Prior knowledge:
heterodimer; A: 292 residues; alpha/beta; Rossmann fold; eight-stranded mixed beta sheet; 8 strands; globular; B: 664 residues
Amino acid sequence: MTPAMIPSLRARDYLSDVKPIWCPGCGHFGVLSALTKALAYLERPKHEIALVSGIGCSSRLPAYLDCYGFHGLHGRALPLATGLKTARPDLTVIATGGDGDGFSIGGNHFLHACRRDIDLCYIVMDNAVYGMTKGQASPTTPPDWTQSALTPHGTGIPAFRPAAIALASGASFIARGFSGDPHGLSELIARAILHPGFAFVHVLSPCRTYRPDDQSSWKQAVHPFGEHLLSATEAPANATQGSTPALRIQDDGLGLGILHEVPRGPISTNATLGASPDHAAALDAIEAELEA
Amino acid sequence: MVWLSGDQQSITVAISGSGGSGALTAGFILLAAAQRCGLYGLMMRSAGPQVRGGESVSILRLGPSPVTNIGDRVDLLAALDWRNIERFHDELALDNSSLVLHDSSAGAVPDSILASAAAQRETDFSRHAAEHSGGRANMIAVGVLGGEIGLPRQALSDAAETLLGKKSAATVEAAKACIATGYRGTVAQGETRAEGAALAQRETATPALSASPRRWRLSGNAAAGLGALRAEVGFVAAYPITPASEMLEWLAPRLERTGGTLLQAEDELAAVNMLVGASFGGVPALTATSGPGLSLMTEGIGLAIASETPILVVDVARGGPSTGLPTKSEQADLNQALYGLHGDAPHLVLAPLDVGDCAYSVEWASRLAERLQTAAILLSDQALGQTHAVIDPPPRCPPVLGRKRIHAASGQDSAQHTEQPSAPDSPAQTSTHTPADSIARTHGATQTSTFMRYAPSADGISPMPAPGEPGYTYTAEGLAHNAKGTPSSSAADHREQLGKLAHKLKAHDYGDGWARIDRGRDQSAPATISLLTWGSSWGAVQEAAHRLRDQGLQVQAIGLRLLAPLQQEALRAAIEGTRVLVIEVNAGAQLFRYLNAERALPLSARSFARPGPLPLRPFEVIAQLQDQLNLSPRAQDSGSKHSHKISHKISREPAATASQKGAR
């Protein structure tokens, strides 16, 4: 298909006719908007895009786009997306979800997707709370947050540091955006989609319902990455002490932009799909070997 | 040892030794030699849990007609040493007509062997091996056993060369020299016996047996892998687990050759979800695991069912529960395969019946899953997966239509009726002259897709486009959904979609593949007794039925290949008027209970269920039949429809009474 044949699509053309279930003021609206802008900017045909998600408020997103999509299991968006991209390297595969889905129940897959470095874009809408199950602490919730009936004294566990863990696990692209800045976020998402490996976009996406007090300040607090680096004494307890990269120790979690980018293609696997050898001939040869 | 003389139709040979002694290699060489002579055979291996250095036993049964189980007993044991031999006491099944050849330097014969009353012969395995540079006792044993069995020496040498081919030339030469020494030793000793001359002749003679030009030697795991290739599976993701890993290792290089790919996943949760993703992409996908892995995969299997995304999960079962018996077999995952999912989740459950049938069953299961857009669980087990056999090439599965597409490829059907997307004929598209008009039409669309992915249809199967097809964008959904795929918690949508999931499985015509029914030479012969089983127990049950028929009983063996959906009517017709014994290797009588829950059995049906890990032997089935149905050939002579009716009628009485009366 030549570009001349492609009438350009506007961002809103990527929306489906399903109305989001999100609460008024939810940060995820900004992410949806940024994502459609990025897709329109990249001129990706709708049928060549697949959005894969798990379970949670943010995981509802695929149904709101008029692309191919899969609303799968809680925590399993990344393996599903990995299987899809491996089987169909021609597609643009984007995984989306929340902090509980991606870092708690799906934490192991997050580590290994970073390692595997398959050409996926993974957008995590982090609001540091389980919204769909009505307000429990998530892996990115501060240890002293006492608003959940499930953990009335707070979790007491230092918050998960997604960007640092992605870096340590081998992700080749790490960015952070803010849902209150859809324009900046759409650029980050577009860059992530273009990155030829595993591209992790950590999005600060406030929950107006369960974290209204803590997260309303994000709009003022976010800043370009590289400013407001933490000193060693300010770094959280679980930061990797004594290491040099700013991301590991000095990231305050509010710095926006591309935090890390390795300009290399994905590590090749034994993937040979698309080579389309003569299946029948190959099968005959394999069967003949069983006689020996 | 008299090989295949008189009424003995096969010989069972065992080789035991501690880790590194090469008991398994010796077994493989004997099996390969038998293949070269046109014999059938199988080799079961039994090992402890050690990764390296553990003792192991290979048990081979060879014969001129197909061999599907290891038989009742071991005729001949070659013990390279005695280390931990007592651990294999049950597997070895020696008796007073067995012969034990033990290494002269191995020390005193253990009590467990003495207790069997088997004849013993001290043999110089290790001393003869030392005569050759690089010689090994297991190769002397190959020669000795080959001579005892009566395999031509050349076949043994050739087999060793093939199997040891990757080792150094010196190793291969040493092996061949040892085989020759062992072989001559047997023949020399044999000359003192009546059959000695015959054995000597076999050293050079080509076997008189009809050599099949196409006889295969492979494990059940390899056969299962072959079935995947035959089904055109293009994606495999899996996490290593015993005893399924060999299927994956067999597949990995061969899948590449057929254009597919394999990913090693971080865990089973990932593996099954990777399958769902690949299959959503339009590529048939499969994984192999064992019980613990199947437990982890069950949520993902449910997703495949709910989202109507075809996948196949091969469970090479081992003993359970929990970590259980990783290296040994049991048919105890049936309940989990049938009932392990939450919610109403109709799906396919199949089981291969022998090593070769692993190819047939995997191909069929994959094609059925593709056609019916559902999950299939295939229950192989260690006894099938890790048994190597010489078999006739297994047949291909019956034809099954492929995945129902929007646009038919040649030779495939397409949707009879689908909700077509609105065709937006904007000026931009009508002015283009692309042959791929649908692409332009969709790409330019500002309208959103109205494609009804989960639309009800007569056969319950909705067309399934793959991503990349313009105009049919949809979101596959694990939540309850409506016909379009939009999440819906309405009672009407739930009812409609659940009904569709069940209907498509029920409405499909599975043909004759649901079971194997063996009534002997005359398949139309009447049967008065049914031995009903599934999976790896089939071989022993089939042989038991054969022997019972030789005794004059009218016995049929039935092996269920398709366990769910149960083919009720076909099964009822097959067992009608017969007395039924349901046979399986698990403690909980899982098949028996399932068939009773489905009301597929007469009330008089009896169960023979015992736990693993020992493979089923034909004599056990015969003994159980006689015991539970109180049958002897004499009793059966007077057997008639009438007597069965009596047994059915009185079946509510305690089992012993009922069977006594039934046999009267």
